[in-house]
Amino acid sequence: MTATAAAAPLIDQLNLDTVSTRDLDRRAMAHDASHYLLIPQGVATPRNADDVGQLLRRSRELNLPATFRSGGTSLSGQALSDSLLINTRQHFRGIEVLDGGARVRVQPGATIRSVNARLAAFGRKLGPDPASEIACTVGGVIANNSSGMACGMEFNTYRTLESMVLVLPSGTVIDTADADADARLRELEPELHEGLLRLRRRVAGNAESVRTITSLFSMKNTMGYGVNSFLDYERAVDILMHLMIGSEGTLGFVAEAVFRTVEVKPAVATGLLVFNTLAAATAALPELVASGLATIELMDAAALKVAQLAADAPAAIRSLPVEGHTALLVEHQGADAAELTGKRHNSQPLFASLDLASPFALTTDPKDRAALWHVRKGLYTTVAGARPSGTNALLEDIVVPVPALADTCGELTRLFAEHRYEDSVIFGHAKDGNVHFMLNERFDDPAQLLRYQAFTDDMVDLVLGAGGSLKAEHGTGRIMAPFVRRQYGDELYEVMQEIKGLIDPANLLNPGVLLAEEPLSYVQNLKVAPTVEEEVDRCVECGYCEPVCPSKDITLTPRQRIVLRREMAAAELRGDDALAARLRKDYEYDGVQTCAADGMCVTACPVLINTGDLVRRLRKENANAVAEAGWSAAADHWGAVTSGGGVALTVAKAMPAPLAKAATAVGRALLGAETVPAYDAVLPGGGSRRRPRRDPDSVAVFFPACIGTMFGPADTPGGAEGGAGGPAKGSAQAFLELCERAGVGLTVPDDIGSLCCGTPWKSKGFAQGYAAMSAKVLDGLYEASGQGRLPVVCDAASCTEGLETMKRLAAEGGERYAGLRFVDSVEFVHQHVLGQLTVTAPVGSMALHPTCSSTQLGTNGALMDIARAVTGDVFVPLNWGCCAFAGDRGLLHPELTDSATDKQAREINEREFDAYASTNRTCELGMSKATGHSYRHLLEILEEATRPEG
């Protein structure tokens, strides 16, 4: 019987409400960033450490293997299981800043970015700085002893973790910060305590072991267990804590950890050194490292050729006839401008002495620095995004002594050619001798699988022959587990086996990871990527999108929506129609109905996927014919529809809220929750009709959003000038008065009442109505703007984004509307109006909610500037995210918005503010419902704050 078959009945015996065996849940969690795939028999989502302890106890009683999984950004297969998978991301995100930021207590589900955001106010950050910091979690960072681009070995997890609360497979809980922690370990786990001390004596007393450990751990090294703990520490509890670091979930669960933080160096200067050869670049490394550079990132010739394809490639790269060139991206960091200036001055003679292929200069300009880093970080995007459909992108890492780096990189390049790996690039952390390389591989082709095995054998020979380690940062996982013995030798490998036997004698925690006796286990359970919809087919399953997704805590994330499409395709290919049908059925709600289609995922995706495009396609393919016809008719009579909707809301507002709610509840019961919105007391009465306007001196065309007709403005807070708690003017009227106050002329199109940005049709998948509205809107704005001479300004960020999308899609059929320019009202006021205004009634404090659309439009900077113009106290919650109201999505599925806003609302309500602002009427409604405070458009508040005195 296979492990999978044995686990299935045992899962049912767990009898815990935290465990799901639904096909959709199991297969959604089966995928991580690695090229392995195991389908768990059950997924547990514990709520607290007690739940974890209960799971481990039941796991031991049932002899049921279990694996911990958090961010799922691991690249080596260490976060997968075909038995019980324990999700520690969702309910373990606690962060507590200690000692003024000098230390921080964190739970395993908190992302590195979220921890650093809390520490930023204190000028501190975590030491480990992995490139996946947007999505990787503390649990994974500890489990893999993560480092990164700047931290090197000095500030990695092993060096900066102060204490942890760990749960052993036996259920024993130890807080290593306790003064009696070692005595407690001896009392509760006497065999383990004595066994660790015995192994310490064995390792320390073996000269060859000491030599091997000293050599391998003088570099970044995440192969096998951290046996350097036996040389670095004397107490059993300290050895145990440091063995847990880098153990990849095979020894226990870290429920909480305390890190010593490091100082943020805000003064930064970046530059690109381009050498004629790889040898010249690596020869310069010793002096460059000695100069105090914080980062030295290497890019080989193949990487530079890829970088040249980017539209924003710096001139130093774009104009280079790349042959054997190599670039080093270097950066100085300082606590202040004076320290940075000193570092730049001291290193200038060194830079001047280098024989470079192009001129070099350090820059502090944020845009120029961002462009340089885009070159480095864009390599993965370009290569992975352009890989052939059906292949997997493998990102590997190795480390060798720095003097061996040039020869190793040269040999790697030769191996790429020998094994016919095209478009493979080498890049990485040159000052550490740590480089990454990329391969595109298809594992459903036996010939290519043999090629991969042959390449791996040659690569292992190369790295170990150079005195290096087969894993520097990404963890041993499944991919290098069979090679641990070869890297360390029999003696230290046996020590590692004893470590595992002492702590997890039943081998129940993450079996098959880190240590493996089967030499070909690394080519088992490989992931095959069947072709799916073109909008998402290039997904590399990295999970970067997950933290920004508003539905992550209620149904699925973008990665999960994509991998489930692959699971459905795979089931259909192998003829498992029953599984495919079950997945499709559950996917309708989890994957389609509860997707906000807000596009936030594209802001985090390294290959620029907007999963909302997939969901809109699916909605379009499954659109109800009757609803399609109704929305098509609405497109032809939109003025009447919006006015009628506004009247209906006014009527509903006048009646008791329970009665209005009951009426929509009946409609939802009869026609479905995806068709009839639920009424909520937070909804205002209807707004006012949009009216045309002409000004011969217009500098812009104003496109007031139709949501201002459908939804009226919120009441002003009591005491606001001119408001006294009464009705406000709304964003459109506020924008008009601000422009009039600044002497800025505007035109509003004659047929404005019948126009819409098209988002309601596009988001619901109603293609006919969207096409009709697009034609009407673009033609009307083309004429009103003088064929694009004037910009078109909209007062709702999501509608500005909708107009941009409308123009982009129209461009696929011709260039007629290419000259149209759409500007959000916040950006327009920031550029043309704000400087002409005088603040006469400043606001004491403001809670500000940027939206998903303002983020994608790039207007959040303008939003903050306007907010700061009216108040010295602007608060954006650290837990900020898309509210998921998404037009009417928050009314169709209120549970989606409730989940998306929960954490940020609780953070906002920790104090009171004088004003609550956003940039979109529906987002204002969503945040009003979540917080219990009335959100208004920022321009309404600006208008009130700048009214002339007297």
Order of strands in the sheet with most strands = 12-14-13-16-17-15
Mean pLDDT: 92
Helix content: 40-55%
Low-confidence parts, pLDDT < 50 over ≥5 residues? 719-724
The biggest beta sheet, please? 6 strands, antiparallel
Number of discrete helical segments? 40
Give a short summary of the structure:
This protein is 44% helix and 12% strand.
Report what the structure shows.
The protein is globular and about 90 Å long. It has 950 residues and is of the alpha/beta class. It has 40 helices and 25 strands. β16 and β17 form a beta hairpin. It has a six-stranded antiparallel sheet, with helices on both faces. Residues 719-724 have low confidence and may be disordered. α7 packs across α8 and α34 crosses α36 (860-870).
Characteristic key phrases:
5-stranded antiparallel beta sheet; 950 residues; 6-stranded antiparallel beta sheet
List the helices and strands and how they pair.
Blueprint lengths: L2 H10 L6 E2 L2 H6 L13 E3 L4 H14 L3 E4 L14 E4 L7 E4 L4 E4 L5 H9 L3 E2 L12 H7 L12 H4 E7 L5 E3 L5 H8 L1 H15 L2 H10 L12 H4 L3 H9 L8 E8 L1 E2 L3 E9 L2 H6 L1 H6 L4 E5 L1 H7 L7 H4 L7 E9 L2 H17 L12 H20 L6 E8 L5 H14 L7 E4 L4 E8 L4 H20 L18 H5 L1 H14 L54 H16 L3 H17 L6 H5 L6 H11 L3 H12 L1 H17 L2 H15 L26 E6 L3 H4 L20 H11 L3 E3 L11 H6 L2 H18 L7 E3 L2 H15 L10 E3 H8 L13 E3 L3 H6 L2 H11 L3 E2 L13 H4 L1 H15 L6 E4 L2 H11 L4 E2 H8 L5
Parallel strand pairs: 2-4, 3-4, 18-19, 18-20, 20-21, 22-23, 22-24, 24-25
Antiparallel strand pairs: 1-2, 5-6, 6-10, 7-11, 8-9, 8-10, 12-14, 13-14, 13-16, 15-17, 16-17
Helix pairs in contact: 7-8, 8-11, 8-21, 14-17, 18-19, 22-23, 26-32, 30-40, 34-36, 36-40, 38-39
